[in-house]
């Protein structure tokens, strides 16, 4: 009998904008963990789309730490960590990286299902809080996860808003039904259509696409009004080498202090990336 082929572990190649994202998350995690440790809260880190733990930097081919590796090595440490990836070799690599750490659980499976089980555990009256990183490649996250996190009142999120996937596959007249369904699952309903298109048809009877900024602003409103996050600073446009946005990095929280810290980090990191 033939044994099933085991796929090898493959690291992603990442661009400079991903390095910036990782640095923002690392800096915020440090501030978050310092404050929550001081207040003796049980703070959990949840990485929904964790990756392999490391990446290869496209420009130099060097190995760079990914979000789970940074979280595992944080000082002061998170009390509990959950690392999720759909890809089995990546999940196995995360198990290897976290071997011997009793406060880490690696899950291989669909984040949209696993997160809905983990999120309700962040109970306010049990002094539990969570920082959740939602970083899919594209439109692979469901709105009900985001909304569940917002409604808990104890969870802060960093969220990758995949504008490139939307522009390329969804905001076009000949969009495939599967891509439209992915968009609706991410947004939570069909109201993305009003956000993405003006009701004017232009000369050739095609829908007129709104700017990226207005789509992003409509989603920001949803994070506040529908998901129930109290503070959602303007997200950061993560741009490729030719200046075109690949995604927007959102932060959403319930505390003013969290909002202030995230805004400061956004500002500092952008300034640094623009000035070498
Ligand atoms: C952008 S990468 C994550 C990078 C990582 N957060 C970092 O910054 O180091 C996205 C990861 O999500 C995983 N993935 C894709 N769909 C998924 C799903 N439905 N549930 C869980 N993981 C998924 C992929 O295997 C991939 O490793």
Provide a short characterization of the protein structure:
This protein has 276 residues and is an alpha/beta fold. The protein has 10 helices and 12 strands.
3D architecture notes:
The chain has helices at residues 16-38, 67-72, 88-97, 111-118, 143-152, 163-170, 177-187, 192-196, 212-225, 256-274, and strands at 13-14, 42-47, 54-57, 63-65, 80-85, 104-108, 128-134, 155-161, 197-201, 207-209, 236-239, 245-252. It is of the alpha/beta class. Strands 6-5-2-7-8-12-11 form a seven-stranded mixed sheet, with helices on both faces. Strands 1-3-4 form a three-stranded mixed sheet. Strand 11 (236-239) and strand 12 form a beta hairpin. The mean pLDDT is 93. The structure holds S-adenosylmethionine (SAM).
Features:
276 residues; seven-stranded mixed β-sheet; three-stranded mixed β-sheet; 12 strands; binds S-adenosylmethionine
């Amino acid at each position: 009998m033939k044994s099933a082929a085991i796929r090898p572990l493959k690291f992603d190649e990442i661009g400079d904008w991903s390095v910036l994202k990782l640095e923002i998350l690392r800096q915020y995690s440090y501030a978050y963990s310092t404050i929550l440790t001081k207040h003796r809260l049980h703070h959990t880190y949840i990485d929904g789309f964790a990756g392999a733990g490391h990446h290869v930097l496209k420009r130099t081919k060097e190995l760079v730490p990914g979000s789970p590796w940074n979280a595992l090595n944080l000082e002061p440490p998170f009390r509990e960590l959950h690392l999720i990836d759909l890809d089995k070799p990546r999940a196995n690599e995360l198990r290897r990286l976290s071997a011997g750490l009793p406060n880490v659980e690696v899950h291989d499976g669909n984040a949209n299902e696993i997160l809905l089980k983990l999120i309700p555990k962040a109970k306010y009256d049990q002094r539990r809080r969570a920082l959740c990183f939602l970083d899919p490649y594209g439109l692979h996250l469901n709105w009900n996860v985001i909304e569940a996190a917002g409604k808990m009142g104890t969870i802060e999120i960093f969220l990758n808003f995949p504008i490139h996937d939307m522009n390329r596959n969804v905001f076009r007249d000949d969009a495939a039904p599967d891509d439209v369904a992915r968009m609706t699952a991410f947004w939570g309903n069909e109201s993305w259509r009003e956000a993405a298109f003006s009701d004017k048809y232009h000369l050739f009877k095609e829908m007129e696409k709104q700017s990226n900024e207005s789509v992003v602003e409509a989603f920001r409103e949803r994070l506040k009004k529908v998901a129930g996050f109290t503070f959602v600073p303007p997200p950061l446009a993560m741009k490729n080498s030719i200046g075109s946005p690949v995604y927007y990095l959102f932060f959403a929280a319930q505390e003013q202090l969290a909002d202030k810290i995230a805004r400061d980090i956004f500002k500092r990191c952008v300034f640094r990336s623009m000035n070498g």
